[in-house]
Design a protein that fits this description.
With 372 residues, this protein is an alpha/beta fold. The protein is 53% helix and 7% strand. It starts with 9 loop residues before the first helix and ends with a helix.
């Protein structure tokens, strides 16, 4: 992956190149930004640039031995750690899924954690970085460089490390091996140990510029400029979200589930709600959490829609069609209560509560919030 292949984020790319040219390379960087902003592509491109034998003014050379191996993600001095799914009694590590990882990254560049987990399992589980991973990290970094200038450890979603891994990583960051660079790519750095964050050079990744997403959609998928611009505004700087709106990635059914829940609650159809809960609770917890976040956004937009503030609402045409009819039922009296229930359900699911009980309780309470 090259800097020129990354959508937008020119300021960050220039900064990373500058750190190399000035030889001010920290032993640990923390790329922090929401899904779809480009944290992982930036980290991979930076790793390639760090070990490039003949770097150009603004990017890797693409021709040296190091670049050729990095392009295929087989460079012996660039290592990856990422959340994995446990199957059976044995505890897995990233190396067990490295072939799948290379396939997903090389094919997509921009992808969500949900897409990654779906690529390695069809079970209803969330990925974790297990304690066994720490021994692999220590072993790899204890070896001499094979051929690169640096040994680079890219850790994607470090917030999914369990406490044991986090504490061992902290010790390594306190006394890092020579010629080692850690690149942590986080979508929620608040869940990291503060002591880990304090030992990194933080790089805040903002939303991708609307113009850059529009340009990428036109160039990569030959979209009509007006359509690409609309999708870019809806994406809120998230290229993964832009792909979902366009349908380039598979539909997640969030809007359909939201509409069904609201209609069933308004109509007081208990049996429909029960069936909905049974069906949706089969989804992975991360998908359910995304659905709850999406629902909060839809309620917010529905409430704002009542005040004719269209410039504050970015929706697809299907969402607009629904909200134009649904918004009168979202009022001062119920919007806060609904959002609070959605946030409570999110917290309970994140704490591994029973999803059926949580969602059914939430949906039943929604019935009482509608005035029929």
């Amino acid at each position: 992956m090259l800097f020129k292949e990354i959508i937008g984020q020119q300021t960050i790319k220039d900064y990373l190149v500058k750190t190399v040219k000035m030889n001010k390379i920290s032993h640990a960087f923390l790329f922090e930004g929401n899904e779809g902003y480009g944290g992982l592509p930036l980290a991979i491109a930076f790793a390639r640039y760090l070990n490039c034998l003949n770097p150009s003014e603004n990017d890797s050379c693409e021709k040296c031995v190091s670049c050729l191996k990095a392009a295929k993600m087989i460079h012996p001095d660039i290592h990856f750690v990422f959340p994995v799914i446990k199957k059976g009694s044995s505890t897995p590590v990233s190396d067990d899924f490295i072939h799948d990882w290379r396939t997903v990254v090389l094919q997509n560049q921009y992808f969500s954690s949900l897409k990654w987990f779906a690529a390695i399992t069809d079970e209803k589980k969330s990925g974790v970085i297990y304690v066994e991973e720490s021994q692999r990290i220590i072993k790899k970094l204890s070896l001499k460089n094979f051929e690169g200038k640096f040994k680079i450890m890219i850790i994607w979603l470090p917030e999914r490390m369990n406490d044991a891994v986090a504490n061992k990583l902290l010790k390594i960051l306190e006394e890092p091996p020579a010629s080692t660079v850690f690149l942590l790519v986080s979508e929620n750095s608040d869940e990291l140990l503060p002591t880990i964050v304090s030992r990194t050079q933080r790089i805040n990744i903002p939303p991708i510029e609307i113009e850059e997403i529009t340009k990428a959609l036109i160039e990569r998928f030959s979209l009509d400029p007006d359509e690409a611009n609309t999708i870019s505004k809806l994406s809120e700087g998230n290229f993964v979200k832009a792909l979902e709106y366009e349908g380039i990635e598979s539909e997640n059914g969030m809007m359909e589930n939201f509409i069904f829940l609201m209609r069933s609650a308004y109509s007081r159809k208990i049996f429909d709600i029960e069936k909905w809960v049974t069906d949706i609770s089969m989804l992975p917890r991360d998908v359910l959490k995304n659905f709850l976040v999406y629902s909060i956004g839809m309620l917010r937009d529905s409430f704002i829609y009542n005040f004719n503030q269209s410039e504050l609402v970015f929706l697809s045409q299907k969402e607009k069609d629904f909200i134009s009819k649904f918004s009168p039922f979202i009022t001062n009296d119920n919007v806060i209560k609904m959002v609070e229930e959605l946030e409570l359900a999110y917290d309970q699911i994140e704490q591994n509560g029973n999803t059926k009980i949580i969602l059914f309780d939430m949906a039943i309470k929604f019935i009482t919030f509608f005035k029929n």
